[in-house]
Amino acid sequence: MNEAIAILCGGGPAPGMNTVVGSVAKAFLNKGYRVIGLHEGYTGLFNPSPRTVEIDYFLADDIFNRGGSYLQMSRFKPTDKNFENDFNLDFFTKNNVKLLVTVGGDDTASTANRIAKFLEAKKYPIANIHVPKTIDNDLPLPNGTPTFGYQSAKDKGATIGRTVYVDARTSGNWFVLAAMGRSAGHLAFGIGTACHYPMIVIPEMFNKTTITVDKIVNLVISSIVKRKIMKMDYGAAIISEGVFHELSDEEIKKSGIHFSYDEHGHPELGKVSKAHIFNEMIENKLKELNIKVKSRPVEIGYEVRCQTPVAFDLVYCSQLGMGVYQLFSEGKTGCMVYADQAGQVSPLYLKDLQDPTTGKIPPRLVDINSDKFKSVIDNILSYITPADYEKAKAYVANPEDYDFKKILNW
Q1: 136 an active-site residue?
Q2: Over the stretch 138-175, which tens digit does the pLDDT of each residue have?
Q3: Taking the complete model, does pTM exceed 0.85, yes or no?
Q4: Annotated catalytic residue: which of 106, 136, 313, 388?
Q5: Containing domain of residue 296, as a range?
Q6: Is 324 contained in some domain?
């Protein structure tokens, strides 16, 4: 029987999943390997009858430029009991599998390492190589290299954002957008910058003060008042959902949101409309201040995860997929594939990214000290400064409470 590789996709989708799978498949098929796709992530490896698909060259060529994931995904994370009682060793032995390729986030990568160690203990060692993905762009890849899917998600988000901004200008309204980003504000910042939004709120901005509901609301009010001083009755603000992760339990209750949590302990932000909540809180404050502004909520979340990959991700994900074969042929295992901006492929090991104390991978945050960030703050955003206090008093009695830099304690 020909040697085979198995490939699965875990977590949530990101543009480029199919590009990675198709490119991995083409590279190994060209070298005579069978390529077996596993549906439902890790579920199939702990099931006596996994859903699998034989990926041939025609299928690989058909899916490589599509959005979404041909291989159905799952967030299933096996327990120690699952390893003891349910592991499907026969799948590997009967199919002569020599490599397990996983596509997903850090949770998916960690499980891949557990499986490799388990198989080694069972006297069936196989290689495992991981392809890291997230539209949040928050994995600490070297030299600022983006995570795959981010550029495509940002592009789709900016398309929505631009359309919304034209609507705001056309109708004399404000829009309040919320963008995905569990722990970092890259997506919100990227979309807001691309659309020249007068207010962007991301968790990294609160580096010198505690995030509260009032501060988030006041930042947007600051922009609304500043635009009124500028004789502009429209605008848009984009807020990263990651601000919720920094709110205390008391502040979360104050927001009116009741979260459920997933199996990894993360608040299930996708089950609630952050834009609706933000917009409602801002509307309530505007009524309290007797400022007449119409605002509308827009959520940017699931709309961008299965976006058709843009050219950047089509090329990048192809490099990553072909890079899997390169690393495998070099005898590498227990690693992630990394392609730098020059296209050079190398292995990246979780231990090199993990915090030595906690063992967790720290998120890559937006660098608020960079020229890029400072330029946006200084030249694109609209907000109250001390020079605006007198004119701002026509709208708020205490303009210093809406001073952008005072709110952030900058």
Answers
A1: yes
A2: 888 888 899 999 999 999 999 999 999 999 999 999 99
A3: yes
A4: 136
A5: 153-305+365-407
A6: yes
